[in-house]
Amino acid sequence: MKGLRRILLPLIILVLALGCLYKAPYSIKASVEGSAVSPGEVFYIIVDFNNTGKVAFVGMEDLSQIPDGFMVLQEPQFPKLLKVGESVQLVWMIKAPTAPGAYPIKLRLNFVDELNRKWFEYHEFLITVVASNPPPPSPEPKEGHLTVKLASPREVLGGEEFEVEVSLSNEGEGDVRVEGVGLHLPGGLKVVSSPVFPLELEPHEDKRVVYAVRAPYSTLEGYMTLVVSYDEGGGMEKKPLSAPIRVVWQPWKNEGALEEAYGDNYRWIANPYVVDGYWARKYNADIVGDVESLRNVALPIVENASSEVEAGERLYGWIKENYVLGDNTTAVDPVKVLPQRKISYAEADILFVGLMKAVNVPARLVTLYDGKDCTARPVAEFYAGGKWYVVNFERDFFGELGDYMASPYFPRLYQLLGEGYMAVSFNPITLAGHEHVDVSAHLLEGVEDAIFKKVGERLTPNSRLQFEKVINSLDDNDKLFALFLFASAPREELNYVLSHYPTGDIVKGVEVIHEFYKGKPYPEDFGKYWNVLKEGLG
Which residues share a beta bridge with 107? Predict the structure, then answer.
């Protein structure tokens, strides 16, 4: 017995010591404002996160399980860098379903620090949807009673500065202390100036505070959410309140703001050329350099579009509807491509870039350069809302760069870039020959993170957990290959495989396929390898 105690005691001490070593380097408080709600009513989950550790936090992964019927209207944005000692308030705005009942919401969060360690948090809330809610209790006679009103414009223009007015009224008989107001804005909106807190409100006193907010040069829709922290005399409470906001940015109607809106990317509007002199010599074709003349064609197509992306979608669809696409390239300038009716995929890319430039959207042609030729694998790109979008007529693809990275067509491009090819875009001045800039980094940086995120968005909560287990079980040399595999899979097939096969079997399948095809050129459609994995498992 004494011998057993001698063994157990050091083990207990070790466990306690490890518990201290791995104590979470933050404090967190999670609450739900509105656990009993009416059908279709909005409620809020609020998480206050304080970095009490020794390193910064750089992100948050949301793996939460929200029951069917609930609609997440607004999700929080974790700061890119939350330094030691800093805190952030995270708010989920959720609309309840129409069917009464009791529903568990499982908040699963991974907080990622700058050492790439993940700290998991789990909180569960029971939301009761009732046919009708009883009225809130009347305040005690000697207590304060805070009411809050939010006034702001429903729609603003890109780049516009506007006011958000918060009216605070104490309708009770006691004092109210407003400790602070958290203003949570959709991505891109920024607070220019804010009021100072705390505020004291005497009985029946009203106060008005104003935030100045600047809209981004991009189109977006979302909600502005206030979270008022206050004390009516019975302890600190929170009161959330939201209002919709829409920002509209149409660069074809805003000539004067283009340089401010796009910064360095304005050059992809200002330069009238789409390709350089090498293209003209190779295809024995003229370069006009007059994209402005395309404006009369493009404007009627995009006139009522609400964003650069919608304008791009319309022009993309217009080209597909009005031209027969093939492989024979004869023209390299959008003005020369326009009057034709049968054009190559490359010519379609060139025409798209020219039309987007004509309506003041940064756009460029991107190709591969092997040191001699710079015409291989052309795609069009345009810039909107802080992101690059890819248009590939040959693959019938239109979407964000991250979506292109998570497509079956990207792995072969990625492989070629690793074999000495350079991704280039064209910014010519003299048209004397090769005049392009290296944009390879733009296609190589953050590939794993981008694909991981996009694949995760295609998965059910349970499949997402299995997906993470698989990726974390793989050697670093196999992870990117696995991400290419999963990104190339149809959504339903991917969820089926991840939910029906053990982690070990999937990991083994990935490793075997990667080893077998190592050193070989990837197929143009990486879905071929996904089919091999799927058939091997089944």
Answer: 123
